[in-house]
Design a protein that fits this description.
The structure holds two protein chains of two kinds. Chain A is α+β, with helices and mostly antiparallel strands. In chain A, 40% of the residues lie in helices and 20% in strands. Classes of the chains: A alpha+beta, B mainly alpha. Bound molecules: zinc ion (ZN).
Chain lengths: 483, 94
Amino acid sequence: MTEYETIIGLEIHTHLKTKSKMFCACSTEFGQPPNSNICPVCTGQPGALPVLNKEAVSLAIRCGLALNCTINKKSVFARKNYFYPDLPKAYQISQFDLPITQAGFVQLPLPDGTEKRVGITRAHLEEDAGKLVHQGAEGIEGATASHVDFNRSSVPLLEIVSEPDLRSAEEARAYLDKIKSILQYAEVSEANMEEGKLRCDANVSIRPVGQKEFGVKVEIKNMNSFRAVERAIKIEVERQKQVLAAGQKVVQETRSYDEAAGRTVSMRGKEESHDYRYFPEPDLLPLLIDDAWVAQVKQDLPELAEQRVKRYQEAYGISAYDARVLTLDKAVADFFDAAARLYGGDKKTIVNWLTTDVLGYLKNENLELGQTKLTPPQLVEMLGLIDNQTISGKIAKDLLVKILQTGASAQKLVEQGGLRQITDEGELQKIIQEILAAHPKQLEQYRSGKTALKGYFVGETMRRTKGQASPPLVNQLLDRLLA
Amino acid sequence: MAINIADARHVADLARLDLTEQELATYTEQLNQILDYAQELEQVNTDKVEPTYHSVAAGTALREDKAVDFPNQAGILRNGPEVSGTSFVVPRIL
Ligand SMILES: [Zn+2]
């Protein structure tokens, strides 16, 4: 059977964090009643003229810098023409042959510890379209009518186009994670897919291993989460392999990802139309950016992820790997910074709890840190209880889950739940003596040389005390009583 | 490069124009005249000329990022052929 190589390029659309829209003064606030943020410009009334938002340009420059792109001194807006009810002017103002930034790259950390460089073809400014709510059916298929809300119309977007450098669905996912992280650190966008502030289309093709030319590429749309992007690409690659295995040819087309059915469906003859007849937007003069503007943006640039990785390594002696795990999600890194300021002990303790327990919990529950109730003071309070031996590390693990879920204080949970660590020697000695008396056979085996059975007695003691016994004390007492 | 009837029909379709055969023939001819004229310009050597994107040689105007409500949103809604609540309603798309 022929071995195939997968080729993926991603087009990521991100909202830019501005107060007003790209070409008019309407608010960009999310979640407002339909058509409460509209004006003649963003609804395409005759005679209305666009005026460019300076902050949108600054944010695009900032993003370009974070993506290692060159910033073009002169860029040009163009009309992308197509008919759709969410597009009131029947064209989208975008950029075509002269984008604001181009030719950048990002470094992806791979699971094997190496890095992969992924090229950024360009990142250009454009306006968003309105939102459609279909009536009489779940989706557009079978709908009897559609409701149009122009609140999102003309909200500034940056479209980030990657080179076809990605070779697997997993790499595509890692790239998405990285771009999201960059956007959050640069404070360019909240970059959440749930609110539609980050959207992603994928160009996918396969070719026999060793072949130089690319295969026919298929564009996949309608992926609503990072997980969906990964799955959709895997499914599409399998489909293309089957098409080729059956002796047929892959057709260049746009396909829609159907999450429920776990397949991609051809959109031919539906929303697809690639004949956009771009031409320079006559209502806008070229965008000119001088060195002083770029220098100003550079100066205002917040601390980026890589800088934070370096800072963590230098200030706290954290490994590069841990620092990267900690900084991937800016919310987690910000949490760490806040906790580190409050905690008097070794900061590596916070790193361990965050990277293993907290991130593990988030992954299992498919949650973001912001969706839990845990705050930096609460984590630090819990670490303090471990440090002063009020609770054992084992108890703390259970406690942490409760705090993540309910936001209760560790101190209160300990008092209510009787979770206080048993550090009283006399009390613990009594319990251990009882356990030894109850297991004469194991005791005899131990005394006849099977010393590994000590672990058995430790386990029994922890079980009897519901994990509340102080492990060092248990060990110490057992050594004495078993001697 | 000459335009034929099929090209003209394709362009008309993209613009959602429903043209008669007679109209298509007329516009095919007119489009070709426009292209012929552009071809005349191609005889000039423009290697060292920067492309012109706009007839005015200046940079675009910029506005500060301040949100201001438009006072007559109801008026915009009234421009729609059909409205439900504060949403425009369009006939089925597919
Ligand atoms: Zn507006």
